[in-house]
Amino acid sequence: MVAPKRNSERRSERLLTELLVTQGWNLSGPPRGDLLLQHEYRHVPALAEILRFASKSGAHFGVPEAILVDRQSLEPLLIVEAKAEPADIDIAVHEVTEIYARPCIRSGFNPLAIALAGTSEESFALRVYKWTGTSWKPVTYDGEPIGWIPNRQELDKIRARRGETEIRPSVPPPDVLANRADEINRLLREANINDTLRPGVVGAIMLALWGSKGDIRRSEKHILEDINRACEQAFWQANKRDLSKSLHVDEANQKLAVKARRIVTILELLNVTVLTAEHDYLGQLYETFFRYTGGNTIGQYFTPRHVAAMMAELCQVGSADIVLDPACGTGGFLVAAMDRIQRSGRLSRAQTIQRVQRQLIGFEAEPITAALAVANMIVRGDGSTSVHRGDCFTDPNYPKEAATVALMNPPFPHEATDVPPERFVEQALVGLQVRGQLAVILPTSALVKSSTGPWREKILARHSLMAVCQLPDELFQPYASSTTSIVVLEKGVPHSPRRKTCFVRMQYDGFTLKKGIRVPRGDGKNQIAQAVRAIINREETPGFSGLAGVGGAAEWGVGKYIPSAPASEDEIQDGADVLIRRLASFYVRYAREVVRQREAIDRCDLELVAYRELVSGARQKNAESLPAEPGTIGGLFDIYYGMKELHSRDGIPPGDALVISPTEEYNGCYGWLDFNPISRPPFVTVAQTGSIGEAFVQTEPCAVNDDCLVLLPKQRQKVSLARLVIAAATLHSERWRFTYGRKLTPQRICEFQLPNSVSLEKKVSQQLRRIAPAIGAALVAFGGEERPWY
């Protein structure tokens, strides 16, 4: 019988759980997780054999508090021994190193040994030891023993360096930060802290903890006072007294005094007190908290750090550059510039700080955000003196023709009265020297809309467009869904149409959206280095990058200029799979309505006509005038617009006629209306609005509204259903070229190349045949016939 755990053991286990979760360890057992608690290791034969006599008496199985293992090989990675009292840390060290970890070393494994003593997050001792080949040595950071359990990334690095015991802390995984943000947000909400003030409160606590190295009294009477004192002192030391009151906590808020104790504990678990200049924690954590603050109402979507670093790389920021950010937010671009200045000049941290105090210039009008930017620079060694709280348009200190590089992500306008991003671009150029470079993130609408054409023409009359790089669609989610691009301009050199601009489409940045959080991709896809190389070396790769002349008010959207690359057979096959499933879902969902429409056609209640009979002579000529090269969309189809009569369903009652619109559900089915006539299938429809670029094969008679294009196989051409599916999948693969600002038109799709693969057409035909029985069964269930789809 297993003896029940004492309360102290339970508290110690809860503390260990908190420490492990904070570092991203999965507390499930292998193969799903990493953790074996106490006797659980006996189910692993190799570990059971190693620890058979590894007890304090040496007479029976040893029972360490926990073993963290590799999920696949079950190799021991961390051995943990815990004690209830902090004073017993030396006992825990001896037992974990000599009794439990040393047998693993003798067996050829190389785990770290963790000694934990205490039951409270506020009062515990933790030591981490590594076997160097001759003895156990404490794992250190800046020469001091670390006080956290290494995550898997840190663990792999320290174990790989034989004999070395120095480690550098890494940022916890995004999901860990998000979970901590959830908890802190809840605590602040319970303390009645307004949404927009929460980032400032968290920033104040973080800076205070970092500046004081955790020397803050935890009592409700003193904790808020100590936070403000430590925070102000950090600003004073950075010669930023004007901002010292911008980050503070309300000392009269008794609810916050109660909750602050737990917030401090959470931030300490995230290693805030030990951070050095290499960590942009404030920026990263602030972005995590930002999703809860309501800050998106002012359009402030802060740039992910890896994208800021990419933009510094694009401009080749060097040790001699003066870098300007006219709307610096929490300072991400300044941090990226600082890092590249240090790397390119191979400078020490002290040398870097001396440089950036003179060479980094940031402006931020919002006081709390400006204070967070200064705090961000403070924790990186204090290069904060050139960060100004001020409006770049009105501040008398704003530089003119001083910087060699400008990096910026201007606020996206939220109200009609907000400053448009184009004005920020112009102001950034004011601050640049002639031939200085600007890399700026802009919404796609500014690059493609006709209303911004005069602005683009004005820019090109004075400056050169060097490059445009479209960023992944989900980059700013969950904060914003705007499609964006990096635009690189060279100041003071009028753009010649003969000068080729590099256009790049970057689909993958190493992250993906999962449950509202952007986390590292499991497949490792990351095109940042490829995009930087293409722009700097002016490389042309169909489907990824292109070189083209731009002039006047022409659009800058990359979709126009990157040459089409024939989609791979696998890509088209994947697209065909999606289309066929959506076709099947349409028949299953609407089998009754399909049967009813067929019966109405048989009764002549619905008139069935060829779509060409509904098209005017002028529209026929327009279709005939499109390029029609063999092997292209234009070579296989005549392309028409949908029916203006169906622009809106207002005034059209429900009925038996299938209507297609720009939706991606159920094969584009909009509904069933009382409408005549309807068109004879088969043909392809493509959405121009809504789900732009979604294409479907229509196999039932239908009417198509004018937000779609209709692609009819050219007369005297016999086109198989599989071939139509392949054409729709091809259009689907090119939909990235179109946005609400850059419309999908017949002229823009007619030159897309179609794959010419007999094997692919055969595979798609087989898939269609496989779903036919299910579709037939659905129709029969409602009294229909298993007649061919068209």
Layout: helices, strands, pairs:
Blueprint (H helix, E strand, L loop, with lengths): L6 H16 L12 E3 L7 H6 L15 E4 L6 E8 L5 H18 L5 E9 L2 E9 L4 E3 L1 E2 L2 E2 L6 H9 L13 H17 L7 H15 L10 H15 L16 H16 L11 H10 L14 H10 L8 E3 L6 H14 L3 H11 E5 L2 H12 L8 E3 L13 E6 L12 H10 L1 E12 H5 L4 H10 L1 E7 L13 E7 L9 E6 L5 E4 L2 E4 L7 H10 L7 E5 L8 H4 L7 H21 L1 H12 L5 E2 L7 H8 L8 H4 E5 L12 E7 L8 E5 L4 E2 L3 E5 L7 E4 L4 E2 L3 E6 L7 H13 L12 H4 L8 H24 L9
Parallel strand pairs: 3-4, 9-10, 9-12, 10-11, 12-13, 14-16, 20-24, 22-27
Antiparallel strand pairs: 1-2, 2-3, 4-5, 5-6, 7-8, 13-15, 14-15, 16-19, 17-18, 21-28, 22-23, 25-26, 25-28
Helix pairs in contact: 5-8, 6-7, 6-8, 6-9, 6-13, 10-11, 10-17, 19-23, 19-25, 20-25, 23-25
Plain-language structure description:
The chain is α/β, with parallel strands linked by helices and 790 residues long. The protein has 4 domains: 154 residues, tt1808, chain A (Alpha-Beta Complex); 101 residues; 268 residues, Vaccinia Virus protein VP39 (Rossmann fold); 213 residues, Alpha-Beta Complex (Adenine-n6-DNA-methyltransferase TaqI, Chain A, domain 2). The chain is built from 25 helices and 28 strands. α14 links the parallel β12 and β13. The relative contact order is 0.06.
